[in-house]
Amino acid sequence: MTSLAKSYRLRLGYAHVANNLYEGWGSYAIGGSSGASIKSEANVFIPKGNKEVTWRGGYSFYSVGDLFKNGASFTQTAQIGPARLKKYGPGQRFQVASADAVRDLTSSAGAQKL
């Protein structure tokens, strides 16, 4: 995702964001508010300007296995342990590749070129 504007923001609830490539975001790459809880796993963050990954408006952010390049940074605001992960049902579980594989996984993602 290359964006010079605001990125998506979660309001309320829980999101597990995995295997995404974030390049050159505006205000933030991942945001949340109103008590949202976000687990970021095996994503790659490459800033061009603003190096802060998160926008914190009253939510919890937890990172595991993310790759931060070119000085990208975030402030972890929560610990999400096994008790939280047990809330996934069988139909909600998914395999997460390592952050090293994200470039290959996303190489053909995005708008199609005609």
From TrEMBL:
Q: Which Pfam families match?
A: Pectate_lyase_4
Q: Enzyme group, top EC level?
A: lyase
Q: In which pathway does it act?
A: Glycan metabolism; pectin degradation; 2-dehydro-3-deoxy-D-gluconate from pectin: step 2/5
Instruction: Using the record's annotation, list all stretches that form the Pectate lyase domain.
Output: 9-114
Species annotation: Punica granatum (Pomegranate)
Similarity section: Belongs to the polysaccharide lyase 1 family.
What name does UniProt use for this protein?
Pectate lyase
Residue stretches spanning the membrane = none
List the keywords (alphabetical): Calcium, Lyase, Metal-binding, Signal
